Input
Amino acid sequence: MRDEVAMNMSRVAAPQLRELVYDQLMRALMVGEFKPGDSFTITALAEQVGTSIVPVREAMQRLSAEGAIELLPGKSARVPQLTPDAFDELMMVRLMLEGKAASLAAKAATPELIAAIRLQYDRMSDAIERHDVAAMMIENKRFHFEIYRGAGAPTLERLIEILWLRVGPYLASSFSDLETGVSRYSASNDRHRQIVEAFEAGDPKAAKRAVQNDLRDFAEGFRKVYPDMSTSAPA
Output
C-alpha cells in the first residue's frame, strides 16, 4: 500500500492526494489487509502509506462515517468486529444488491465485459493453484467489481462498496487455510465459473443466482472460521 501511494503523491495536488489515500485504505479494507479488531494510530498509518497525517486523518473520518472503522481517543482507530446479527444483516443486503447488479450487468454485457470477468476468473484459478491468499483476495475483488461496474448503476456500485468495506477485513481470515484447503477453494471458484458462463449465455437470472450462491458459500465458510457467528444463514 505504501509504495503505490508514495509513487504517486509527489505528482498530485492535495485534493487528489486525499482521494488517493482514501482509495488505498478502502481497497486495503476490502481485500482483508486489515483484520477485525486491528487498531492503529493516524501517525503510524501515515508513515506506512508515505504521506502527512492530514490526508490519512480525512480518509479515516470518511471511513468511520461509512462504518468501516471506529475512531478512538488519542488519534487512533480500530477495525470493528461484527456481531452475528450485523453479519446476517450485511449478507441479506449484499444478496439483494449484488444479485441485482449482476442481473443488470448480464443483461447489458458487452464482449469486453465478458472477456474481463473471464480473465479475472483465470487469475483467481492461478492464485488458488499457487496457494496465494493475497492474490486471491485482490482478484476476487476485481472480478466482482468488473461485474458491478458493468451494471451501469454508480449508486448501486457505491452501496456495494460500502458493504464490502464492512466485510472485507474478514475475507482473508475466511481464506486463511488456502494452503491446506485448495480443493475447497477450487470448488468455491466454480461459482465464479458459473457466473462467467451465465454472462456468456446472456442469462441475467442465472448470473444473479450464481452471484448469490457465491455469497452464500462465503457466509458458510465464514461461519466455519468464526463459529460464534451462529445465527441463521441469510436466505
User: Anything to note?
Assistant: The first helix runs from residue 2 to 9. The CA atoms of residues 45 and 56 lie 7 Å apart. The longest strand covers residues 39-41. The chain has ten helices and three strands.
